[in-house]
C-alpha cells in the first residue's frame, strides 16, 4: 500500500548506486527491495523475526548464501544485510557509514507510537555521515484519509485503555516533533497519495489487522468483535464489484543529521 510513498522518497533523494541505506523497522523488506533495484546498498533491521524472515525471502532468496552469523545474511548482492534486533545490530566499523536512514513505519496514529522510534534514530545517527538524510513517514490529514474512519473503531474499542496503543488522529507536526526529539534538522517534506485497495472485505479486514493498530482493541475485547466492527466500518468503501477502495494521503519528512 505504501509503494507510492517509497517511490516518491527515493525519487526526491535520487537514491541510486551511491546510496548506503539503513532501514529502521524494515518489516518485510519491500522498501529495501525497491532501493536495491535502484542500485543502493541496503541494510534493514527489525525486532520482528517473522517479518525479517520474509524480507530475507524477498532480498536473499538463496538460503545457501546466508552469512556465518545468526543475524547477518548476505546473498548475490553482498551489500544487502537483513538483521534481527535494534539499530545497534547494524553497526559495522568495517563498512562505510550510511548516507540515508529511513523509518517508513508511519507514526502519529497511536499514543506513544514514536516512543521507540526516537531512541532508534538516536542510535542510528552515529552510524551515518553528517548531513545525511533521515526520512520519517506518517499519516496525512484525517480528512484526506478514508481509512481514518475505520481506525476510529480501534480508538472506540480501546477507550478504556487510554494511553499507549490507543488510536488517535494524526497531527500536523507529528514528524517534526519526532525529528526534534532525535536532534535532527528538518529539510523538507511531501505528501503522497497511497490508496488502500483490497479484493474483498475479508482481505481488507485481514490487511487492516496486520497494521498492528487494532492490537490494543483485540486485547481489550476479542478478535471476533473487532473484525465485526471493522467490517461494518468498511461498508461505505465497498464498491459494486465487491472490492474495497480507500483513498489516503501519507506525509514524509526529510531531516538532516547535523
From TrEMBL:
Superkingdom to which the source organism belongs: Bacteria
Segments traversing the membrane: none
Keywords assigned by UniProt, alphabetized: Methyltransferase, Transferase
Sequence ranges assigned to domain Methyltransferase type in this UniProt record: 22-60
Molecular function GO terms recorded: S-adenosylmethionine-dependent methyltransferase activity
Gene3D superfamilies: Vaccinia Virus protein VP39
InterPro entries: Methyltransf_11, SAM-dependent_MTases_sf
A single GO BP: methylation
Any Pfam family: Methyltransf_11
UniProt name for this protein: Methyltransferase type 11
Amino acid at each position: 500500500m505504501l509503494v507510492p510513498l517509497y517511490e516518491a522518497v527515493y525519487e526526491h533523494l535520487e537514491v541510486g548506486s551511491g546510496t548506503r541505506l539503513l532501514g529502521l523497522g524494515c518489516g518485510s523488506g519491500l522498501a529495501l527491495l525497491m532501493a536495491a533495484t535502484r542500485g543502493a546498498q541496503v541494510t534493514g533491521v527489525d525486532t520482528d523475526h517473522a517479518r525479517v524472515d520474509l524480507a530475507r525471502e524477498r532480498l536473499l532468496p538463496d538460503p545457501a548464501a546466508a552469512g556465518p552469523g545468526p543475524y547477518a545474511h548476505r546473498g548475490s548482492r553482498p551489500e544487502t544485510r537483513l538483521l534481527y534486533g535494534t539499530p545497534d545490530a547494524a553497526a559495522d566499523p568495517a563498512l562505510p557509514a550510511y548516507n540515508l536512514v529511513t523509518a517508513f513505519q508511519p507514526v502519529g496514529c497511536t499514543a506513544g507510537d514514536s516512543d521507540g522510534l526516537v531512541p532508534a534514530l538516536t542510535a542510528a545517527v552515529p552510524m551515518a555521515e553528517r548531513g545525511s538524510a533521515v526520512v520519517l513517514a506518517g499519516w496525512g490529514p484525517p480528512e484526506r484519509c478514508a481509512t481514518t474512519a475505520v481506525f476510529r473503531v480501534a480508538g472506540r474499542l480501546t477507550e478504556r485503555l487510554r494511553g499507549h496503543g490507543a488510536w488517535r488522529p494524526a497531527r500536523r507536526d507529528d514528524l517534526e516533533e519526532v525529528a526534534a526529539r532525535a536532534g535532527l534538522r528538518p529539510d523538507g517534506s511531501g505528501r503522497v497519495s497511497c490508496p488502500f485497495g483490497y479484493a474483498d472485505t475479508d482481505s481488507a479486514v485481514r490487511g487492516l489487522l496486520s497494521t498492528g493498530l487494532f492490537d490494543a482493541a483485540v486485547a481489550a475485547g476479542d478478535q471476533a468483535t473487532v473484525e465485526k466492527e471493522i467490517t461494518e466500518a468498511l461498508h461505505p468503501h465497498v464498491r459494486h464489484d465487491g472490492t474495497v477502495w480507500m483513498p489516503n494521503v501519507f506525509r514524509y519528512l526529510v531531516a538532516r543529521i547535523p
